[in-house]
């Protein structure tokens, strides 16, 4: 469906079935069964419009950016910088100079820990995280703590993973905290964290705030100025864009005060054998030839998402997630982790006495793609007392009937494993 048609639809009810048909990959059988793709938290699928935009870029406009003065280089530069402007508008950044392209959320967090962290932290300072962070928002800080002598502290998660223990916040927000880095929507639990409040608390202490938006950027309406964060990181491949592109929003005054992350072409002002000066943000942080085709694809993905409308996506995600949650509860013998009320489009669960990986392997035989394991949150799994969970995660191209197919596959699994 064209973006124009999608925009027209916005005024009326969204035709989710025809939106689904924009995703060619979903129309296939796996092991003889219609594919049910419930692994979008790991990576979403892309619509034809994104695939087409990348193809057109390579067929018509590709050359290296910035350096050339020939037509194709100018076109590629316009496409790349146009994508930056599109991303800035999508997150309501004050300027496109506040958007740095990276390979994804992981690289963005490494950039921040390395550039901001090494320049600003000293022994005794505290890095405040939560107990539900993805390894991408934990390991870079552990590496930084080893280098700087700063200490990691963790906002505690309630025992059943329902959310952060808000009643204990006061004890953690002390003047020793120099940086708060917190996941917006947990990829393991579906918890939606009170990031606006957390950023405000950080600001009151003079600490910087970073939001890991890997799971929220493609699902929720994000206004970085309203959130009051210093930085917000995201991955393109979780929001209908290509792999290998993502980025970060950073408040310009913060970015301007940060040293470069990587050195190389594009990020310099002037170089001599014994001296170098650097460009202003965003280019200071983008050494080497960037992922232009990725940026073009991300631009198309954002156009696509906004044509549907983020409010419509949030409502659709919430409805299908609630339906899945209730269907799993009705199945009986299922332990569901995370909040009972509002949650992101993720449901983590375990079928009584069935290993999560065995379960995921079995339902795959029925065409149902779930994810099993620790979901890159090993410490959280230890806290919950399980080695891992099965996880179903949803996006706007999923439908209720697919939840029914998953439930049917789970019922069969239970019979097979002798539990029902
Ligand atoms: C909450 C969260 N943060 C960070 C990441 C890392 O994203 P990427 O692998 O795209 O860099 C993920 C990926 O699953 C995630 O779910």
Bound molecules: pyridoxal-5'-phosphate
CATH topology of the largest domain: Aspartate Aminotransferase, domain 2
Strand order of the biggest β-sheet = 4-10-9-8-7-5-6
Bulk shape? globular
Description of the structure:
By secondary structure, the chain is an alpha/beta fold. The chain folds into two domains: 3-46 and 309-414, Aspartate Aminotransferase, domain 1 (Alpha-Beta Complex); 52-306, 3-Layer(aba) Sandwich (Aspartate Aminotransferase, domain 2), CATH 3.40.640. 40% of the residues lie in helices and 17% in strands. The chain is built from 15 helices and 17 strands. The protein has helices at 3-11, 16-20, 48-61, 71-90, 105-120, 139-148, 169-172, 195-204, 224-227, 252-256, 292-308, 310-331, 356-364, 378-384, 400-416; strands at residues 29-30, 33-34, 36-37, 99-102, 126-130, 151-155, 177-183, 208-212, 231-235, 246-250, 268-272, 275-278, 334-337, 346-351, 368-369, 371-373, 389-393. A seven-stranded mixed sheet has the order 4-10-9-8-7-5-6, sandwiched between helices. It is globular. The model has no long low-confidence stretch (mean pLDDT 95). Pyridoxal-5'-phosphate is lined by residues 42, 104-106, 134, 136-137, 183, 187, 212, 214-215, 235. The site of pyridoxal-5'-phosphate (PLP) has 13 residues, from α5.
């Amino acid at each position: 469906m064209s973006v124009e048609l999608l925009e027209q639809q916005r005024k009326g009810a969204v035709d989710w079935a025809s939106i689904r048909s924009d995703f060619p990959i979903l129309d296939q059988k796996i092991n003889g069964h219609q594919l049910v793709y419930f692994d979008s938290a790991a990576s979403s699928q892309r619509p034809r419009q994104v695939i087409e935009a990348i193809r057109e870029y390579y067929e018509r406009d590709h050359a290296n950016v910035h350096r050339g003065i020939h037509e194709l280089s100018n076109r590629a530069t316009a496409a790349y910088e146009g994508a930056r402007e599109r991303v800035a508008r999508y997150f309501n950044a004050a300027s496109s100079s506040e958007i740095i392209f990276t390979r994804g959320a992981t690289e963005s967090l490494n950039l921040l820990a390395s550039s901001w962290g090494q320049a600003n932290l000293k022994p005794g300072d505290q890095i405040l995280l939560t107990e539900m962070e993805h390894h991408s928002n934990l390991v870079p800080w552990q590496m930084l703590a080893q280098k700087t002598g700063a200490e990691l502290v963790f906002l505690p998660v309630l025992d059943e993973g329902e959310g952060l223990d808000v009643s204990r916040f006061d004890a953690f927000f002390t003047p020793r905290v120099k940086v708060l880095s917190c996941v917006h929507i947990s990829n393991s639990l579906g918890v939606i964290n009170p990031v606006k409040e957390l950023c405000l608390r950080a600001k009151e202490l003079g600490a910087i705030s970073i939001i890991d938006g890997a799971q929220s950027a493609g699902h929720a309406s994000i206004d970085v100025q309203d959130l009051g964060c210093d930085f917000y990181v995201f991955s393109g491949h979780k929001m209908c864009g290509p792999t290998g592109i993502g980025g970060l929003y950073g408040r310009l005054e913060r970015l301007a005060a940060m040293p470069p992350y990587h050195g190389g072409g594009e990020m310099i002002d002037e170089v001599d054998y014994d001296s170098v000066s650097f460009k202003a943000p965003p280019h200071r942080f983008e050494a080497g030839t960037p992922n232009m085709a990725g940026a073009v694809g991300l631009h198309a993905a954002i156009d696509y998402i906004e044509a549907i409308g983020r409010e419509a996506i949030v409502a659709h995600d919430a409805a299908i997630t609630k339906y899945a949650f209730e269907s799993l509860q009705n199945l009986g013998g299922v332990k569901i982790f995370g909040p009972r009320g509002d949650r992101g489009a993720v449901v983590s669960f375990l079928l009584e006495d069935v290993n999560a990986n065995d379960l995921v392997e079995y339902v795959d035989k029925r065409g149902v793609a779930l994810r099993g394991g620790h979901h890159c949150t090993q410490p959280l799994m230890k806290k919950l007392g399980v080695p891992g969970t099965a996880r179903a995660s949803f996006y706007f191209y999923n439908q209720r009937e697919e939840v029914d197919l998953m439930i049917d596959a789970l019922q069969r699994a239970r019979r097979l494993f002798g539990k029902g």
